[in-house]
Design a protein that fits this description.
Length: about 100
Amino acid sequence: MDTYTRILEEQLCFSVYNASKQFTKLYREALEPFQLTYPQYIALLVLWEGEEQTVSELGKRLALDSGTLTPMLKRMEHLGYVTRSRHPEDERRVY
């Protein structure tokens, strides 16, 4: 068993996995009072850059598809963190 443990600990992917878990835990604790998740937080970071953007553009920046992003933005709107609006000439475009 010790041989397998040493092999596992020598893998870069395992170190990255462990680091990711620790960051997730830290962010979860820090964001909990605001009722935000980490993906919601990074969406806010992009939006705080100040440029109006469509949901599609935001999804590209975050590497999230609209099936994930739209419900997340709806929850954030319900909490008062974002406002979504449709383009007056093209209702399919949501800002």
